[in-house]
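Try this one yourself first.
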């Protein structure tokens, strides 16, 4: 029905979610952009979900970040852009987001190892669906479906697409424990402008604000081995999500913990939803990650425990210029 097709706009489907959430920092917390070892970073993620249950839900994202040292090179600014495309279900309910972001990193130590960051993001969102792929109760007569029968929604449905402006703000702190343990903590508040979201032109329906809490840490275990852990928690209306886990990494090329080449494997858990095995390969400036959601929710009988496949690709590097942050900041290695 149309209600089922559109309810996700005002319920659990308000925002997209990814298992490799660390690869979309603007969606996680705009104050987390720039927390990487380099001047520029480009990230892309593709997710395909619920193949075993219905028409697949598909999500694609691409983001870019660039850091600029300012003043005496103690502080720096990161500018970023997030692009997303999401399409779900029979109705082809889709959303396109164009979200610029900016983050200011204030150095809190003489050795440039700890920073307090304040980030903002805001941009354009467009949503639409295809009503020709939906069926309605009024189109069934004596158990037979008539696609030409009136749907009963003609006088209620005002539009099949709309757009709105969105905004979010976040803060984070990143520092170093001991000599090589990097960590960050952060929180973000999205949709504080309360955009109106309704295909019925109902101006009383607004997108619920979302509160996000973030944590990440990299712990060296030996000259070649380290553990990278991430945790994310969000609350939006009646919906809450808790996801966390860790990757164990092995450095290659006899460069120890400083190696930018390595293999990683680990496990994440989205509470009451999915267990997510994950692998990552670092190849210098390039990274590739693969994960798969093993469904453990109440849908597991229908889904046969099959959830969503994700693949991520990352490029990051330093600029060959005097404006590089290579010698001006100590960057977390996540």
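Now uncover the answer:
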């Amino acid at each position: 029905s149309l209600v089922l097709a559109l309810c996700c706009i005002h319920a659990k489907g308000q925002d997209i979610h990814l298992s490799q959430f660390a690869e979309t920092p603007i969606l996680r917390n705009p104050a987390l952009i720039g927390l990487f070892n380099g001047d520029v970073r480009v990230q892309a993620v593709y997710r395909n979900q619920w193949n075993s249950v219905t028409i697949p839900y598909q999500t694609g994202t691409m983001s870019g970040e660039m850091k600029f040292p300012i003043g005496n090179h103690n502080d720096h600014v990161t500018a970023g852009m997030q692009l997303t495309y999401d399409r779900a279900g029979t109705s082809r309910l889709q959303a396109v987001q164009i979200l610029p972001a900016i983050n200011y990193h204030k150095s809190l130590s003489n050795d440039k190892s700890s920073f307090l960051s304040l980030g903002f993001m805001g941009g354009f969102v467009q949503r639409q669906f295809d009503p020709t792929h939906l069926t309605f109760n009024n189109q069934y007569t004596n158990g037979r479906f008539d696609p030409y029968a009136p749907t009963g929604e003609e006088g209620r449905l005002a539009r099949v697409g709309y757009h709105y402006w969105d905004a979010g703000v976040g803060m984070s702190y990143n520092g170093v424990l001991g000599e090589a343990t990097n960590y960050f903590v952060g929180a973000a508040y999205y949709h504080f402008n309360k955009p109106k979201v309704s295909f019925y032109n109902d101006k009383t329906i607004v997108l619920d604000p979302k509160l996000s809490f973030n944590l990440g840490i990299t712990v060296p275990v030996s000259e070649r081995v380290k553990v990278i852990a991430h945790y994310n928690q969000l609350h939006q209306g009646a919906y809450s999500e808790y996801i966390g886990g860790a990757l164990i990494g092995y450095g290659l090329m006899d460069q120890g913990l400083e190696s930018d080449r390595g293999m990683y494997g680990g496990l994440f858990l989205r509470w009451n939803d999915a267990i997510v095995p994950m692998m990552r390969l670092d190849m210098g400036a390039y990274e590739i990650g693969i994960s798969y959601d093993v469904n453990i929710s109440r849908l597991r009988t229908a889904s046969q425990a099959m959830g969503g496949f994700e693949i991520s690709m990352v490029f990051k590097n330093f600029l060959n210029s005097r404006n590089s942050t290579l010698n001006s900041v100590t960057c977390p290695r996540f």
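Discussion: Residues 123 and 285 are 29 Å apart (CA to CA). Residues 1-13 have pLDDT under 50 and may be disordered.
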